[in-house]
Amino acid sequence: MPPKNPNAAKTKQKPQEEQREKCLQAVVLADSFETRFTPFTLERPRCLLPLANTPLIEYTLEFLANAGVQEVFVYCGSHAEQLDDYIHASRWISKSSPFRALKILKSTATSVGEAMRNLDQLDVITGDFLLVSGDVISNMNLEPALIKHRARREKCKDAIMTMVLSEAGVGHRTKSKGSRPVFVIDPAAERCLHYEEMGGRRGGSRYVTLDPELLTSHGEIEVRDDLIDCHIDICALDVLAQWSDNFDFQSLRKSFLRGVLKDYETYGKTIHVYVVADQYAARVKSLRAYDAVSKDVCGRWAYPLCPDSNLVPGQSYRFGRGKVYQENDVLLGRTAVVKRSVVGRGTSVGDGSTINGSTVGRRCKIGNNVTIEGAYIWDNVTIEDGSIVRQAVIANGTSIGKNCTIYWAALISFVVQIPENTKISAESKITRDEERGYSNNSDAEDSDASSVTSSRLISQNPSASSSVSSISTLASSDADLEPSRDASRRSSFRSDPLDDAAENRDFHLEATGSILDGLQKSDPADTIMLELNGYRMSTNAGQHEVRKAVVAAFMKRISNLIAGDNASGAGTMSIGAAVKDVFTNYKSLVGRTTFDKEADEKVDQVDFLMLVQKECVGRPSGDQLLLFVAKEVCDLEVIEEDGVLQWWDDERSREGEMGNVRGLTATFITFLKEAEEDDESEEDEDESDENDD
Q1: Which long-range contacts (CB under 8 A, 24 or more apart) does 458-463 make?
Q2: What region holds the W2 domain (predicted)?
């Protein structure tokens, strides 16, 4: 029997809906269900890791408060107790909190899909809500996006979600260097029609495949690969229902977004976009993104979300000379130099030490003559005299002994002790040895000549029993991975070395062959680089792999020219002529693989010359070849003199077989150093003359 008043239900619900509109809710996914931040996330949730000495969750909650959110549900799995303790000790649940309520939802979910289905069952969401990751950093005004979403919902209840995307150039440093999202959009309706990911570590496609009907049924479409997916979604309740009805949905984009778009003809649900052009929004979803967003925050691109805003009670940062953010009670030695860095309270820096482009936490003890370049040093870290740390991350409570060298992209976890005279190789990750305590000098037979090995510093966790290994580093893959179904892989904090080796080998073979083919056909450098970028994006290769392919192809081409294989048919070439021919005509390829011209430390240039030196090992007249290449790249100014000298002084260039091909180049290096001394002498004389005048 029909109700007496068909509109009674609607009339009854209307005040409730208005109340829901007034109370904006948000769900924060504090668990990423990934392993990109291991070894750190073995002991602490990602959202509590510090960025510019402030926990990531603080930036996310600040964004939600500015967006007018009143109720927040923080969904967490691993290390839930730590997050619970942090939140209950924070300002976010105090009487002055901008939130009406903030609740921690603990779960054992192993994917976003499980978490969303669990959230639906809890029945705590009452209307439209924000869905964000616990690593979002944004200064954007969300009100215009909310207004548009609500207006669309008024017209059509099938408009179930609005994704907030940030406009950025294709090469923006916060964008993924691996799998990158491509959104096909109807600009008139601001509706997402198609979603795809190009490139990626599993050899993803370099092409977007569109249904021809999209082209005929829409007056205009835009294919956008210049957008950063911030994982800020404005959702209707129907979003939770979609997750619950589709148990194969596991991830936000690859599963849910694709699934809803694919089923549009069947269910009619639409997903829309709101593109931010002049405000900051990004996710710290990988170690590379951590590095990029740290630079953005310290560079004030996310203002007012910068250190001197003092988001956490008790912070006292001030922005001063040399672009330094410094708290109270910092002790600097008379000859210490700090530039473009963040330094926390209670930290001391000894005489002769240099900190540049780095973050140093609270209560750190930096000894004398220490060099810290582009590194992230968290709280209570001790670095003793004479040590060097470059582009590494060192977690709380770690102690670095005297005269240690920590190379780029090394990750040292919590409360590790590194004995003096130790070298930590690039891309290593180090954790505590729970069984034997902490490593000391007696653990290493020759600690001043060897890197720390797994038996000394790697945790005895069964999933981490392999040796210190290469991992996803600050410049490596941050593709949006589907959650693994294998529990052992979820617990492991390293990728499969066989898979990585195969992928690197495939890229190297394809890229080297492509470059060599272009060199032999005298193709323009732009054409070769375009093809090379295609291979790089399809395999998620890093810049080191790109440089390696360029060097291998160049050296092969030089060998061919020396042997008489050249298009002009002019016969064999001398080593010097062959080197000049290749590097003069294609010097721009070298320039496009080195990005450190403005940096004091020429990491890319040193890496390029290391690869050249390695190629010379075992070749006939390898010592002559190295000399001519070093001189040519210096003369062409594609490698700076500082880059050449830093390469020469690098211990790696002297070790083993590498040292066997250095002999002839020593004279050239001596020339460079004497020329540098002469220039300095002339400058001193000029200054003296000016003073006399």
Answers
A1: 458/430, 458/431, 458/433, 459/39, 459/42, 459/431, 459/432, 459/433, 459/434, 460/433, 460/434, 460/435, 461/42, 461/431, 461/434, 463/488, 463/491, 463/492, 463/493
A2: 501-682
